[in-house]
Amino acid sequence: MMDTTAELYGDLSKILVTREEIAEAVKKLGQQITADYKGKNVILIGILKGAVVFFADLIREIDLPLNIDFMAVSSYGAATKSSGVVEVVKDINRDITGLDVLVVEDIVDSGMTLSYLKKYLSSRGAASIKVVTLLDKPERRRVDLTADYFCFTIPDEFVVGYGLDYAEKYRNLPDIGVLHPRIYADQ
Ligand code: IMP
Ligand code: MG
User: Given the CA of residue 109, which atom of ligand 1 is nearest to it?
Assistant: First the structure.
């Protein structure tokens, strides 16, 4: 039987951020980026797949001419903790020399993914590289990485929805919720 949205919501222990709170924060963030990047040559690079929902909403709140592209990185498996090993699975296929890059992520957890991506993109000649994330989990940081723009700081709990998954599920929930630990207790 297919999961209905109601069943997916049943796997959450609570809603952490509502769709209304997300919309308001994304709008404010878009206005801030619009002001900061006026006159610049900006490209937003979304990190697949978790950031797609946030990315699609964010670019429509930025009132500037801009380019978009996507990268996919992998840190292996369906576990709720990042392995720390980052591999580029899909790369951008354009020259970013001289461009002002905004890397758009769903969440910064250990910081390993973004720390790797920043180094990788600067080696390709970007004029500037800044990090935009919807969620920040600072308690779990393992490397020195600070997001330049973020919407919400959250506690050390595993969250899903609004693009974020557990084992590829829950990305289509419009709100962000804490996944009930019974869902991954057997892992
Ligand atoms: P980092 O490299 O440890 O910062 O991990 C970043 C990636 O781990 C994110 O892009 C997410 O795909 C994934 N991740 C970390 N925490 C969560 C979470 O609470 N829910 C869903 N995915 C998460
Ligand atoms: Mg993910």
Answer: 4
User: Does the CB atom of residue 112 touch ligand 1 within 6 A?
Assistant: yes
Does this model's pTM top 0.90? My answer is yes
Query: β-pairing, 42-48 with 87-90?
Result: unpaired
Model pLDDT for residues 43-77, shown as the tens digit of each residue: 999 999 999 999 999 999 999 999 999 999 987 54
Contacts 24+ apart (CB under 8 A), 142-150: 142/84, 142/110, 142/111, 142/112, 143/110, 143/111, 143/112, 143/115, 144/111, 144/115, 145/108, 145/111, 145/114, 145/115, 145/118, 147/105, 147/108, 147/114, 149/29, 149/32, 149/33, 149/102, 150/108
